[in-house]
Amino acid sequence: MAGYTYRIEGFAGLDQSRGESFISPSFSPDAMNFSTEGGDLSVTKGYSRLLPAPVPQESSSGIDRVCFFRTADRDIPMAISGGYVYTYSPEEESWTRAYAYPLVLERRHYCVLMTRIGMTDVMLIADGANRILKFDGESFTPFGSEEGCSDICVSYIAMYRSRLFAAGDYENPNRLYYSKLPGGDRTIEDWGYDADSPSVEGGHIEIGTTSGDPITAIAAMSNQLLIFKKSSIYRLIGDRPGNFTVELIEKDSTFVTDTATAVCRDVIYYVTEGGLCCFNGVDASPMPDARLISKLTEGADTTDTRMAAAGDRLYFTIKKEGRTRLVEYDLKTRRYMQFGGFTLYDIAALDGRLIVTNSARYVEKWGEGDDFDGDPIEAYWTTPLTDLGDKASVKTLREMYLRGESFGGAALVVEARVGGHTDEYRALLPGSEAEVLEIPLMNEGRTFGFRFSNDSGGRFRLVGGVETELGIRRRTE
Asked: Which residues pair with 116 in a beta bridge?
């Protein structure tokens, strides 16, 4: 019987793009709530409360939107739930209902935008059922005016070339509005024409021709505006009405919801039922590595997907089998990981970190703490089921070698699947990374794979990869 060492050089991320026999041992076909920073495998950090008080609940709705009014001298956390806008007071450590919408749609998506009107910082909120709402840090007032042609109920807003662009008008689903160019006595609250200065006037453009293909989202880059429609994608380029040009980018695209887009480093990322996509200024297409999570996104519900760019990572939520999954994509290492065991309503970025709102209605900081705000983190990592490219041979497991550390006496659980057998082993990692833990294994078969998990939400970290000694023999030996 020949000896063989099966090595996992380090841990990377999910790979569901091919059959398990073709996946590198460093990747996992199914993993949850782990971090692979630096190639080590460690139970992920959880989340802890950013604010001590939960968002009030005055209806059966979850938290539709969390955002932050930010100026040079203060931040005001804001939350929208069930048609009510709440603001948070750090001094009183409590939320206050600051505004109530007169009309609330069943589909409650709110598009928020921090910008300036004149010399005043404002947050604009569009919901599709009411006029754009304007918040200046003190009070809420309706945006625009009838005489300025800007009292229209729109769903989507974005700033491009210093103008406010808006879409999602129920009566004109293909219409893209744009404001006057600010300057002098002109502001983004004026969307009207200007016969004396056509280059700075406001107005609108029809995008496409059919009402069956309405605008569903807009997102701005530095040099163009991307316009998502129900089944197509357009872009607008130019810096004034006289040279605005609308071009068709994709004529048979998949639906993109307005909350499923994010801009990072002047690239627009978005999520469809096919996975993570991007628009790089020329093409709108799935990411080259989108199939790494093909099984995760297959059959997933993305109609209420939330997306945010925080630091060097993209985060987005999907619903899979009725449960929330938070997917992380590392823009540097090009690796995916998934997290679950909780319900998230909305996510946002704040100072390069991810902010989430959970089912208990708290605003939480992602990546802090050893649990999900009191709930244990259940984590597992599955290695590919492999036959080592030799289906005829029988593999006999002998011993596994590990380095790392356990925290608070947490046990490492190793499940070894060999042929039709599954054996479970529990061990405590040594107190020092300089030591090596040896786990005797048993059973034999033609295929094998492992599953690493934590026990009762405990924490551990594996460093330096994993080695497994096994014997290989032919059936007749």
From this structure: 121
Q: Is 264 helix (H, G, I), strand (E, B) or coil?
A: strand
Q: What percentage of the chain has pLDDT greater than the value 90?
A: 90
pLDDT at 358: 96
- Residue 120 pLDDT greater than 80, yes or no: yes
Beta bridge partners of 302: none
Half-sphere exposure of 274 (CA within 13 A, CB side): 12
Token pair of 115, please? 């910008």
Residue length, the chain?
A: 477
How much is the pLDDT for 1? Answer: 61
Side-chain half-sphere of 381: how many Cα atoms within 13 Å? 30
What is the distance of C-alpha 74 from the center of its chain? Answer: 26
CA distance 52 to 48: 10
Instruction: Give kind and range of the element (H or E) at residue 157.
Output: strand 156-160
Question: CA-based angle 439:395:406, to the nearest 5?
Answer: 20
Beta-sheet strand order (sheet of 175-178): 156-160, 163-167, 175-178, 203-206
Tokens representing residue 45 in the block:
């950090």
* Cα(260)–Cα(305) distance, integer angstroms: 5
Query: pLDDT tens-digit profile of 7-20?
Result: 999 999 999 999 99
354: nearest Cα among 46, 39, 111 = 46
Of 194, 212, 214, 210, give the one whose Cα is nearest residue 202.
Answer: 194
CA 443/CA 310 separation, integer angstroms: 46
Instruction: Please list, in sequence order, all residues whose beta carbon lies within 8 angstroms of the beta carbon of residue 307, skipping any fewer than 6 positions away.
Output: 259, 260, 261, 262, 269, 270, 271, 314, 315, 316, 317, 347
Residue 165 parent element (H or E): strand 163-167
Could you tell me the pLDDT band of residue 59, with boundaries at 50, 70 and 90?
confident
pTM of the model: 0.95
- Classified as helix, coil or strand, 21 is helix
Q: List the beta strands (DSSP E) in 273-392.
A: 275-279, 284-286, 307-310, 313-320, 323-330, 335-339, 344-350, 353-358, 363-366, 380-382
Query: How far does the chain reach from its first CA to its final CA, in angstroms?
Result: 7
CB atoms within 10 A of CB 40: 18
